[in-house]
Write a structure and sequence with these properties.
Strand content: 25-35%
Structural class: alpha+beta
Oligomer: single chain
Number of domains: 3
Shape: globular
CATH class of the largest domain: Alpha Beta
Bound molecules: adenosine-5'-diphosphate, magnesium ion
Radius of gyration: 21 Å
Strand order of the largest sheet: 13-12-9-10-11-14-19-18
CATH topology of the largest domain: D-amino Acid Aminotransferase, Chain A, domain 1
Length: 455
């Protein structure tokens, strides 16, 4: 292993996850924290920790200068960005490299190409991967949009080139709605992402979200099969599983091969995820975007393949050629992850920060709990509401659902209201059990069932 000392430019469960992988590989770790996170678990678990600024993320976890200064002053040779924050920021990747450090992720150029959703669409189409029908590039004006509308019809999606985390997407059902929404979408994208660029996609109704995990070293690329993340709220995943029960073996091979072809075509390096929508009825899949980072739901892939994806990222960044070949990657059983958020599902998912009371973490065979929680931990109100991820693995999907229910019953987080009750209800739902869902299914379900989730 070439890397000796790693700074983790993140917080929460993903910072803990990266620290663990580094320590398993004998890499020294440096945590960074804002003034709101002095007591955080990642600070406790790292070998060293550096205060980088006040609670506001802009002044701490998004502060490139403070992060670089922390890495250099502690003698780090590398930085892992986690997910969110600066993970898909090309300027950060470039700045880390320019400071003489290794960025654990793709180059700035690769992030610019694949992190921009419009240029990624073009790269996918060029690599022969089917993309959602829509605009060829960015759509700068309503006039230019009209030609695209002839192809897509209504409803149509207006998406921000720089969007992410389910933000920067809106649907127009008519020309009037489109014309009224376009300028507003531009302004919103500019405000939220610093880039007002928009593009258009046909709406794929009743689709499944299926994504392929790839690992690549710049020369070679392999896939670690797919994850299905069709249970979403506001276009954000809440429950993910692997493998997808919607794919036939032949289609699985085709989908995974297309992700590898794309990674090869752009000489991708690191871990990445190629996201698709799969239309069951038409039996067609369409590329939607690539995430050039580790994803929240990576543990379900780790569960079914036995591969430590974060360790692989660190090896690749350390300059080792990919040591896994495609034949090494085999799938065993079924895994499900649910996102335990500090949100009240009975009150429209209002954030619920507070203090963790008596914590009881689920365990036993096939159960993994990735979190930042400990007894008495005070959840700060400044950041993402993700507290923990519960991942279960079993021989079959049915057994995984039973194990999920068992583990959720074991979980206690004291007085904090979380999404736990939602997942207990979902695990018992006939449609979920049959796998008969699509990306809008959960929103419909919530309209009928949210009130019953009061805890
Ligand atoms: P995944 O694709 O790994 O499931 P999510 O879409 O849930 O990830 O995003 C992971 C985290 O990163 C969330 O905290 C989300 O809010 C944040 N995030 C992702 N993309 C962006 C972005 N472009 N701008 C701001 N935050 C983002
Ligand atoms: P983000 O960058 O925010 O993750 P994505 O482009 O990956 O955005 O889309 C997020 C989710 O929005 C998808 O998983 C899907 O549920 C929905 N979505 C995106 N594009 C389309 C589309 N063209 N048709 C239908 N649903 C879509
Ligand atoms: Mg996405």
């Amino acid at each position: 292993m070439m890397l000796k000392k790693l700074l983790i430019a993140n917080r929460g469960e993903i910072a803990v996850r990266v620290i663990r992988a580094a320590q398993d590989l004998g890499i020294a770790t440096v945590a960074v924290y804002s003034a709101a996170d002095a007591d955080a678990l990642h600070v406790q678990l790292a070998d060293e920790a550096v205060l980088i600024g006040p609670p506001a993320a802009k002044k701490s976890y998004l502060n490139i200068e403070a992060l670089l200064a922390a890495a250099l002053s502690t003698g780090c040779d590398s930085i892992h960005p986690g997910y969110g924050f600066l993970a898909e920021n090309a300027a950060f990747s470039d700045a880390v490299t320019a400071a003489g450090l290794v960025f654990v992720g793709p180059s700035g150029d690769a992030i610019r190409l694949m992190g921009d959703k419009v240029s990624a669409r073009t790269a996918a189409a060029d690599a022969g991967v089917p993309v959602v029908p829509g605009s060829k590039g960015r759509v700068e004006s309503i006039e230019a949009a009209r030609a695209v509308l002839e192809e897509t019809g209504f409803p149509v999606m207006i998406k921000a080139a720089a969007g992410g985390g389910g933000r920067g997407i809106r649907i127009a059902h008519s020309l009037i709605e489109f014309e009224q929404g376009f300028a507003q979408a531009q302004a919103e994208a500019l405000a939220a992402f610093g880039d007002g660029g928009l593009y258009m996609e046909k709406v794929i109704a009743r689709a499944r979200h299926i994504e392929v995990q790839v690992l690549a070293d710049g020369q070679n690329a392999i896939h670690c099969y797919e994850r299905e993340c069709s249970l979403q709220r506001r276009r954000q995943k809440v429950w993910e599983e692997a493998p997808s029960r919607a794919l036939s073996p032949a289609l699985r091979e085709e989908l995974c091969a297309s992700a590898v072809a794309l990674a090869r075509a752009v000489s991708y390096s690191g871990a990445g995820t190629v996201e698709y929508l799969y239309d069951d009825a038409a039996d067609r899949f369409y590329f939607i975007e690539m995430n050039t980072r580790i994803q929240v739901e990576h543990p379900v892939t780790e569960a079914i393949t036995g591969i430590d994806l974060v360790a692989e990222m660190l090896r690749i960044a350390g300059g080792e050629p990919l040591w896994l070949v495609q034949g090494d990657v085999t799938v065993k059983g079924h895994a499900i992850e649910v996102r335990i958020n500090a949100e009240d599902p009975a009150r429209d998912f209002a954030p619920f920060p507070g203090t963790v009371g008596a914590l009881r973490i689920p365990g036993g065979p096939g159960v993994r709990f990735d979190s930042m929680l400990y007894n008495g931990y005070q959840v700060p109100p400044f950041y993402d509401s993700l507290l923990a991820k519960l991942i279960v693995h079993a021989e079959t999907r049915e057994a995984a659902l039973a194990r999920l229910t068992r583990a959720l019953k074991e979980l206690e987080i004291g007085d904090l209201v979380t999404t736990r009750a939602l997942f207990l209800a979902l695990a018992a739902d006939p449609d979920v059990r049959a796998g008969d869902v699509h990306t809008r299914w959960l929103e419909g379900w919530l309209v009928e069932n949210a009130a019953a989730l009061a805890s």
